[in-house]
């Protein structure tokens, strides 16, 4: 009985991560659409980029955790550094593992830390585009077709 209960809990949690990814993605798209109304108003656009950036990042993270949950409890991951190691150690679980690892590194490592630059400072340019590409790449890993 215990093994079945554990399996059901794992399956339910796994499904929830996929749903969470899609919710984050959909909300990010709503914010991005709202941004269009503020074209040319950089202070306002920065605020929208902060919100959309966080939503896009966590859409990707939830998808990554869905994939990683096939092998481990994602509760043991704990932080971005440990998650990066888990990605690197489990590239075989991903269709595009090397690319996800590279994007993740650029988004989270201190020398680049694009996520922080977008999500906390509202920076634009290639940083925001990279964050969106990361989310799309990760969502494809769990069956999203865009």
Compile the SSE list and pairings:
Blueprint: H1 2-35, H2 42-68, H3 80-89, H4 97-108, H5 114-119, H6 126-141
Helix pairs in contact: 1-2, 2-6, 3-4, 4-6
Short description:
With about 150 residues, this protein is an all-alpha fold. About 70% of the residues lie in helices and about 0% in strands.
Plain-language structure description:
With 146 residues, this protein is mostly helical. It has one domain. Helices cover 72% and strands 0% of the residues. α4 (97-108) runs antiparallel to α6. The model has no long low-confidence stretch (mean pLDDT 85).
Uncertain residue ranges:
none
Work out the helix count.
6
- Structural class comes to mainly alpha
Backbone CA Rg:
16 Å
Percent helix range: over 70%
Element pattern in H and E: HHHHHH
- Rounded average pLDDT: 85
As a percent range, the share of strand residues is under 5%
Which terms would index this structure?
single chain, 146 residues, mainly alpha, 6 helices, 0% strand, globular
